[in-house]
Each structure stands twice: as C-alpha cells, then as structure tokens.
Amino acid sequence: MPTKTPVTTEEVSAAAQRLGFTIPPDHEEEYLALLAKTDAQCELILNTPDYKPVPDYERYPRTDVYLPEKKDNPLRAWAWRCHAGDNIEGGNKLLSGKTVVLKDTVCMAGVPLLFGTDAFENYTPDVDATIVSRVLENGGHILGKAACENFSHGATSSSSPFGPVENPYAKGFTTGGSSSGCGALVGSGEADMAIGGDQGGSIRIPASFCGIVGLKPTFGLVPYTGVLTSDAGLDHVGPMTKTVLDCATLLQAIAGYDNIDDRQLGAPKYEDVPKYKELLLKSREVPMGRKKIGILTEALNGKLVAGSVKRLVLRAAEQFRGLGMTVDEVSIPIFSLTPALIHIVNKLASGGTRQGRQVGRRGLYLNDYWEHLLPWDQSKYDKAKYFVTGTAMSCEYAWHKYPTAYGRAINLTRQLRDEFDKLFEQYDAIIMPTCPQPPRRHIPAHAGPLGWADHAPGTSSITAAFNLTGHPSLSIPVGFASPMPDDILSEEDKSIKLPVGMMIVGKPFDEMGIMTVADVLERSMDWKTVVDSE
C-alpha cells in the first residue's frame, strides 16, 4: 500500500505537464513521494515565523493616516497621507525641518501600500524600508505616499487608479513616470523632498518633466530593502528634490550598506557614507576650470530628440564652457541599442517577478505582499492596465521563443558599461538630454495596448541605459520648451511652457562628482528664466 500524502496524482501530472515531461508509469509513485517531501518542507518553512526588521512605532509614530479627498489632491499625486517623525524633540539632524514623501512602492509600517493599482486591496506593510528608517533617524518628517504608475510600470503618468497625475506646470500633460506623484509633489512645492524608484528612468523622467533634481544613484549605493521590486538587477531608489544641495543632503541620509540588500556590492557602510552635503558646500570654493565634460552624440542627435530639447542642452553645455570647463562631443555607438536592451531585460525579468518568481537574492522578501497579489486572474490583469499586461505577454512569448535573448542582452549591457567606463578615464562627466522630448499629453482614455506602448515614444530611451550599466545619473532642469506640435490643441496651448531636464552621468560611486557639476550649473544659471524661443 502506498503511503498517504497531501500530494495528489493529479498535481504530479500537472507539474510534469507544465515541464513538458512524461513520467514513466513505473516511476509515478516515486515522484509522488518526492513531491510529498517538497510539500512537507514547504509546510515546515511556512509554519515558521518570518524574520523581518521590526519598526520602532514608539520613537517614530505614524499618525493621521488617511486617503486624501479629491479636493485636497488636485494633481492626483497623493496615494496616502500620514504624519511620521521623531517622537523626541530637539537635535539638529541632517533632515531636520524637511518634509519627505515616499513613492508608493516603499514599505512604511502601518501605512497602506497601493503600488499604483487597485488589482489587490488592503495591503498594509508591517516593516519599514531601510530608507524610511534612515529618513526618520535623520530628523525628516514623512508626509505620506506619492502616487505611482500601475505596478510601478510606465514612463507616463496615466495608469494610476485615481486618474492621471497632472504636471504642476500644465494640466493635461504628463509628469512622467513611474515616480509620477513624487515629481508632482516636489515640483508643486507640496513637499521638500521625495524618494523615488527607478528601473528605467522613473526618478529622472519625472524630475525632468516637473522641473526638479532627480538622482538615480550608483546601483546598490542606496539599499532597496523593503521596496517592492520590478527586477533586482534594475532596481534603484534615490532623491527627488528642489535643489542639488537638497539632493546631496537626502542622499547622505539614505545611502550605505544595510547588511540586508545584496545589491549593495561595493557600497560603503552606512557610517562611512561621504558627507555629501558638507563636501558639496566645500566644492563651491574650488575653481571648476579643469573639469572635462563629454556630450554623448548618440543621445543628443537621436531621431526622436526635439529641437527645443537639443538647444537647451547645448545652451547648458555652453554655460560649462563659460565657466572654464572643457566640453567635447563623445560617441558610444552601442548606446543606440539601449531601447532594445531595456526592452528585453525589463520585460523578461519584471514579467517573471510579477508572477512571484523571485529567486537568487539574499535580501528581505516581502512575502505578505505576494500573498495579497497572487494568483493572478482576469480581473487583476484588467485593473493592472496595458503596460503590465503587455509586459506579461512579452515575457511569456520571448522566454518560450528566444530563451537566450535575456542572457545576450545582459552580456551586451556589460559592453555598454565598459564603453562608458573607458570614457570616464578621460572625462569627469557625460551630459545628454534626460528625455528626447518635453512632457507629452496624457495617454488618451480610449487607447488600447499598442496605443499605450507607442505613446510618447522614446521617453526612457536615454535614461534606461544607466539602469543597465549602474552608473549614477542626475537630471537637472535647464529651461522651458513649448509642447510638441501634436500636443498643441488650441491657441492658448501655444503659451504653455514645460520643463526640460539635462542628465549628468558619472563613474560608479562618483555621486559627488556629478552633484558638483550640477551644483555649479544650478548656481550659475536660473533655469526658470531660460525659454527656448525657436
């Protein structure tokens, strides 16, 4: 008599069928026994209490947690409101007096997390992300969660269940995504600082479109612990602020190894993080004439780059020359492959991640989130919107038909990284447009999957390169431009002026270098007075 097990023969057959494996009849009982062992080990692990960081509610209480009403959320940029800060008064800390918002991918214990979607409900984390703990420990006051795109996927700001997040400079235009609410709240002055997330440009695109500073740090410099993932090889979190000095201040507060996140190879210990704020202030006493800046021709002259964007970036380059810096055009031909590389890496990786297949990492797994989401069904896909369903379909299709495409893309990504590293042997920073075009109008409500995919083409075609290579890159505003011709729908629209950002890229862990260059530009040029007039 075979031993009774909780595994059925139907489950064994189904597993084999999914693998395309036929079980020989004389091995059926043996595979049943093997799966029973796996079942028992799963039960044992799942009945063992999870091991997670414990938040300090007493020192850092969360109060007044609520969903804002429409009248109090005109840009639709808030996901949840709250108040959280140090319960002990006094002390001149790094972030004292600063208000901070978090992208709604960041876990904050006791505050609901939406992940930009209504595909699941009632998920309230019981852990604080490392960056949340560090903001609170450094005296920051957290005002709540900023809306993001559905499952944090998309470079526009059209997919939130609350409706499109509005650009603070022109209603009807995108803030960029997926850290859309962060860009709107800092750009409109509702918060001093935000922490955004970036897998293909999601910090820098909203920074460019909302007229603020946004830094994607070196891969691993800032711990991703306690933040919902898209793909562990692309995940970054970083500052979104009004000024470069604020960016340096927030980066100093949140950077450094947390002894959990295994993305952080090469990152300094928390106590050894550079004093970015102090160093930036000291750098203002040093002449910048010896700096060498490269302008990446493939990014500047791309076929999608608007003339207004190119002119504003070249004007900023002339500003550097006027300050005594050397500015040369430089070229990396493989950079033009960026859209294809990020398409393969992002879709084939994040598509699997969203199915709950997270393996190969040694950090904190947010298992309670996956319990809320899985399994997927038609209703959840319908609510997730087309960026998510398109990625899911592309993932399944490509892994089946092109099983080595992901590996080839990763190898070519190393080539892209090595080419940039060679340039950094000669240049202190490389500059280029953050995005090819000014902010576009929101995706039309009637658009389908292809309409979503083709709207605002190339938005992340420049930024995504540095998610792939891991180099630090910062977007800084350099002026205003008119909307693209297709977005001018009335005579009044001709008077609309939208922010344009320039990206400054540096060698790994040289955040100080690119912030110094950005700070010089910011102090020597009032970007709000610069308007492209052609």
TrEMBL record:
GO terms for molecular function: catalytic activity. Pfam families: Amidase (PF01425). Residues 91-512 form the Amidase domain. This is Amidase domain-containing protein. It comes from Kwoniella bestiolae CBS 10118. InterPro entries: Amidase, Amidase_CS, Amidase_dom, AS_sf. Belongs to the amidase family. PROSITE patterns: AMIDASES.
